[in-house]
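Quick one, T. Sequence first:
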Amino acid sequence: MAIANILVPLSGAPHDAVALATAFAAARPFHAHVSALFVSPDERDTIAVSDWQTMPEVVQQIADVRSRTTNQLKENARGTFAAGVLQAHVKVAPMAQKSDCVTASWREETGRLSRVIAANTFFADLVVFPPSAGAKDAELHDAFIHTLLKAERPVLLSPQAAPETVGAKVAVGWDDGLAASHAVVAALPFLEASGKVELLCVRKGSASEFELADVREYLALHGVTATDRLIARTARPVGEILLDSATGCDLIVVGGYGHSRTFESVFGGVTDHIASHARIPILMVH
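Structure tokens:
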């Protein structure tokens, strides 16, 4: 297995640079293609037809301002893309293509962000989003949730600072659950290419040790030798314990799940903490 096509939405915000650098770092072990996507909003989705009929001049002024803002954000994103490919020594290609090096392409579409991104994930092996912590772009956050829940594609959340590598040493947050098993399967390309894989299991109270034989056997069938570490649970949040235990790794794999399928309650406490405090890239699957 390998990662061949990585999608990274760019919004024209400062965090684009980190997301793009994370995508390039993730692509490097596989000589994958990185598809940078900028989505311009459709004014018909943001301004009601009745507004055009009742206040055409005022609405036109609003539309002009929004258009100028979108154009500025597009130029910002284009600039970030141009600088990013130069810094990462990435070859620009008109479209996705198999190569002996990392390639990248730029495309623009118009529409509702979450829908456009979802439509472009059909043949994406991985979708890279900017850091979750401190994110102010609500629409981009909704697109991330939509990609994770509805499109059900593997998502890579960027850390706060651009990583030099992704997947050289991988930590897997393992709890013997369905979400974790889905995440392990989705992360196989990284696990197969990694120099070291460690299963991190946090004991819950007096519960018995997690069954690790099955996951180790599955990984061994794919040529992956994994070590494991059982960690005693304390009063600290499990997510915090996992992050501290993953120190020295450049990728952490976790299941993205929650107690509800609503956008307001996507994650359980563990994955929510990891997504909000990650210092390294996070690969998650719902």
